[in-house]
Amino acid sequence: MAFTLESPAFAHGERIPPRHSRDGENVSPPLEWRDAPAGAKSFALVVEDPDAPSGTFRHWAVYDIDPQRNILPEGTTAGAKIESLGHGVNDFGNPHYDGPQPPRGHGLHHYHFRLLALDVETLHLDEKAPVDEVMERAKPHMLGQAELVGTFERT
């Protein structure tokens, strides 16, 4: 079976609900995964928008996710940290989820939620590590990747 990532809030290729945007409640959507590669010792999640006017914009990173987990509930980073999850600093400058907020009239943006299954328990990152550093540190340890793409547009 394939390693898959899904959300009860939106299907692959569909619109991310406004509550998960910065114009709404700005809470992270619930995420669920299954069929992770054997030997996964942790997971990392990175959310990026490659359609941003200045190039790829990074919205969220969570890492050192326990390998026994198969969900991240809605609002995972809205309050205190759960477990010992690491949080990358996004391109808004925040160490938590910040949802879609593309420029008005810029057209449809695609938000790539990438869940990486890793062969290490921790990425040993500084608490102020930016999202792109989380991705770079994770790449050599990837056993597999699952992706969910949501869309959002501000008119």
From TrEMBL:
CDD domains reported for this sequence: PEBP_bact_arch
InterPro entries per the UniProt record, alphabetical: PEBP (IPR008914), PEBP-like_sf (IPR036610), YbhB_YbcL/LppC-like (IPR005247)
Name used for this protein in its record: PEBP family protein
Alphabetical list of SUPFAM superfamilies matching this protein: PEBP-like
Gene3D superfamilies: PEBP-like (3.90.280.10)
NCBIfam families: YbhB/YbcL family Raf kinase inhibitor-like protein
Span list, region Disordered: 1-34
Organism: Mesorhizobium metallidurans STM 2683
Cross-referenced Pfam families: PBP (PF01161)
Start-end of Basic and acidic residues biased regions: 12-25
